[in-house]
Write a structure and sequence with these properties.
- The chain is an alpha+beta fold and 68 residues long.
- It has one domain.
- Strands 2-1-3-4 form a 4-stranded antiparallel β-sheet.
- The longest helix has 13 residues.
- The chain is globular.
- It starts with a strand and ends with a helix.
Amino acid sequence: MYRLVTFVNDYSGRRQQERGPWLKSREEADYWQSQLRERGYVVRIESMSGTLPDSGGNALAQALSSMA
């Protein structure tokens, strides 16, 4: 099972995570991820076993980890 995690800034500018409901298939999660990204949200897909590496998480963190 999969769910989306979106990142939004609250009224004071702090980054907040919002987790969505569990979805039955990866295809459904991919669909909703693309829909939210088109609307400007930062989104990653999480599985019951953890974050998926190819789900488009934080680009800065990915770039820094590749430099190590």
